[in-house]
């Protein structure tokens, strides 16, 4: 079910009513109804759409609570200073799970996400469970029906399980098994988080991956080259981050915490190289779970990721 943005989430410290150089995001945000929106000819500004859904996490036997992630992240993002001075910042609200099955909710999210991608220079899709990535893919394929899609996922897990019904751990297999013009690159894999069967599937389907310990201290020229080649080889890039890739010392509030995860600055460094490409058509951030957070640490980190990604 789609609901419009909640202005009560967008509050913060007020330094000035009149000086834009002292504004924070809550002072520049706009609200709009995606169901009534018609696309304009030229993309402009930034659009947010939340995926307040953790049914996929539940199906995956994970700890639920990520449905609260979008509002928690927006609340923290609202407080941050408006340094980018983007032309437009629009909160379109959230999609929640009220359908009979998860696939119907993903399709609803996809239809609305496609409008955000078509309307804005940057489309941020905020989870919720990482099954948001399947909706993101459907939206990308809708907007770019003939394009080769490069999927870049910063994640501790492959999320290529063969389970049925769909979960937060199946979406990339669903994509790869049904779209021969989609390819997959995973950055930050946890060796303790993926079975041998998943590595076999990766080998059979030419999935490119980089382990977390290869990204811990700095991003090597070899890995930078791997990412840049992947971007070069595709028409459009679908970028997604699962917050469980970050070490639980920095991101405790996730659906599946990581004890040997990445440091936040490593995620910033590799992400900035991806975000700067004009081929990136959408960005999703998944698995923030406020029920398990400490001092809003994870939602603040996710909000700062988005804040740093604004171009």
From TrEMBL:
Amino acids binding Mn(2+) 1: 130, 155, 159, 242
Molecular function, one GO term: formimidoylglutamase activity
Residues where Mn(2+) 2 binds: 155, 157, 242, 244
Necessary cofactors: Mn(2+)
Keyword Hydrolase belongs to the record: yes
Keywords, alphabetical: Histidine metabolism, Hydrolase, Manganese, Metal-binding
Pathway the protein acts in: Amino-acid degradation; L-histidine degradation into L-glutamate; L-glutamate from N-formimidoyl-L-glutamate (hydrolase route): step 1/1
Catalytic activity of the protein: N-formimidoyl-L-glutamate + H2O = formamide + L-glutamate
SUPFAM superfamilies attached to this UniProt entry: Arginase/deacetylase
Lineage: superkingdom: Bacteria
Pfam families documented for this protein: Arginase
Free-text cofactor note: Binds 2 manganese ions per subunit.
Similarity annotation: Belongs to the arginase family.
Function: Catalyzes the conversion of N-formimidoyl-L-glutamate to L-glutamate and formamide.
Protein name: Formimidoylglutamase
Organism, as annotated: Staphylococcus borealis
Lineage: Bacteria, Bacillati, Bacillota, Bacilli, Bacillales
């Amino acid at each position: 079910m789609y609901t419009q943005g909640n202005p009560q989430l967008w509050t913060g410290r007020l330094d000035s009513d009149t000086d834009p150089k002292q504004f924070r995001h809550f002072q520049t945000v706009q609200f709009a109804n995606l169901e009534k929106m018609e696309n304009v000819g030229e993309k402009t500004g930034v659009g947010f759409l939340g995926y307040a859904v953790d049914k996929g996490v539940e199906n995956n036997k994970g700890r639920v609570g990520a449905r609260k992630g979008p509002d928690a992240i927006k609340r923290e993002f609202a407080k941050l200073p408006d340094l980018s001075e983007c032309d437009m910042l629009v909160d379109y609200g959230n999609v929640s799970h009220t359908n009979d099955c998860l696939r119907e909710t993903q399709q609803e999210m996809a239809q609305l996400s496609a409008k955000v991608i078509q309307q804005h220079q940057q489309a941020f899709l905020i989870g919720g469970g990482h099954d948001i990535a399947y909706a993101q893919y459907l939206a990308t394929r809708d907007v770019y029906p003939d394009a080769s899609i490069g999927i870049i996922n910063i994640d501790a897990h492959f999320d290529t399980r063969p389970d049925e019904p769909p979960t937060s751990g199946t979406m990339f297999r669903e994509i790869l098994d049904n779209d021969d013009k989609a390819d997959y690159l995973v950055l930050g894999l946890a060796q303790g988080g993926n079975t041998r069967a998943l590595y076999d599937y990766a080998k059979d389907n030419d999935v490119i991956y980089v382990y977390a310990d290869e990204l811990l201290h700095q991003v090597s020229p070899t890995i930078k080259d791997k990412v840049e080649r992947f971007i070069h080889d595709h028409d459009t890039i679908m970028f997604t981050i699962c917050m469980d890739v970050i070490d639980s010392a920095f991101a405790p509030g996730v659906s599946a915490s990581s004890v040997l995860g990445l440091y936040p600055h490593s995620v910033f460094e590799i992400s900035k190289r991806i975000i700067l490409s004009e081929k990136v058509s959408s960005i999703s951030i998944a698995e923030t779970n406020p029920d398990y957070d400490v001092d809003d640490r994870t939602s603040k980190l996710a909000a700062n990721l988005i804040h740093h990604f604004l171009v």
